[in-house]
From TrEMBL:
It comes from the Eukaryota. Transmembrane segments: none annotated. It comes from Sus scrofa. Keywords: Transferase. Pfam families: GST_C_3, GST_N. SUPFAM superfamilies: GST C-terminal domain-like, Thioredoxin-like. GO terms for cellular component: cytosol. GO terms for molecular function: glutathione transferase activity. This is glutathione transferase.
Length: 309
């Protein structure tokens, strides 16, 4: 049995029938929560209500329940109150809470598969650097040879380098607390994001192959591809919130980007979907996201690469 070592802090044991799992209730701020997600700990506040803390502890409002994988403590949990500064010490390789991540996006001068992550970063108040790769540079070959899958985007988060746009979005979702409140919401968000990917692939194929000949058929079939998202919205707070749950997620940014692109490709595409139409307007009006969507950087980027729509 592995043990979790912790320095002495004010602590009390709480009897809870949880089986062979270890649950730790930590008073953390948002950065600590993000740190726990990065380290692989799973927030589980929805599984059990946190025990009441003494009223003389002013930091109790920030409590988060964590399940630490691969650790067994039978039949009880610990309530540990860790006072800032400093990250929780059972997460050994985390930077200081005040450290800001340094993000870099390496991509072509287009919205393409990077605009959803740019929208996410902008709306969350994050800064990032852009390394723009021209078509001529890409065709020369050396950069392509260094890319893991021979394609862009390439994303850097400090010393972590990622490829595959959906993997990058999920990483940002975990890092910034945009992956739902529990495992059920996370599963639904994965499902939504896969649905977005299916439609994005169909749209990309249309743009790159036989656009003039195939567009009419694509437009005819588009409502069938949009209807599942309208259905999901209707099942979540009557369509007045987000695609899943009550907080914005990485999948919302990906879906919003796809819908905005389709409103350029097929301006009337959302006329038959009032919830999706209101959803696009509502998310686009978020102050930081609205400023990004109106910025020259976003406006001047081609939506579909070299094709002018």
């Amino acid at each position: 049995m592995r043990r979790v070592r912790m320095r002495r802090v004010r602590m009390r044991r709480v009897r809870m029938r949880l089986g062979t799992r270890d649950w730790v209730l930590l008073s953390l701020d948002a950065s600590g929560k993000a740190a726990g997600l990065q380290a692989g700990c799973i927030p589980a506040a929805s599984r059990c209500a946190p025990p009441a803390l003494p009223p003389n502890q002013p930091h109790q409002k920030g409590c988060v329940t964590w399940h630490i994988p691969r650790v067994e403590r039978r039949g009880w949990s610990r309530t540990v109150n860790i006072r800032p500064p400093g990250p929780p010490h059972f997460l050994p390789h985390l930077p200081a809470a005040a450290a800001m991540p340094s993000y870099t996006i390496v991509y072509f001068p287009a919205r393409g598969r990077c605009e959803a992550m740019r929208m996410l970063l902008a709306d969350q108040g994050q800064s990032w650097k852009e390394e723009v790769v021209t078509k001529e540079t890409w065709l020369q070959g050396p950069l392509k040879a260094t890319c893991l899958y021979g394609q862009l985007p390439k994303f850097q988060d400090g010393d972590l380098t990622l490829y595959q746009s959906n993997a990058i979005l999920r990483h940002l979702g975990r890092s910034l607390g945009l992956y739902g409140k529990d495992l059920q919401e996370a599963a639904l968000l994965d499902m939504v994001n896969d649905g977005v990917e299916d439609l994005r692939r169909l749209c990309g194929h249309l743009i790159r192959h036989n656009y003039e000949e195939d567009k009419a058929r694509y437009v005819e079939e588009l409502p069938g591809h949009l209807r599942p998202f309208e259905t999901l919205l209707s099942q979540n707070q009557g369509g007045q919130a987000f695609i899943v749950g009550s907080q914005i997620s990485f999948a919302d940014y990906n879906l919003l980007d796809l819908l905005l692109s389709h409103q350029v490709l097929v301006p009337s595409c959302l006329d038959a979907f009032p919830l999706l139409s209101a959803y696009v307007a509502r998310l686009s009006a978020r102050p930081k996201l609205k400023a990004f969507l109106a910025s020259p950087e976003h406006v001047n980027r081609p939506i579909f690469g070299s094709r002018k729509i």
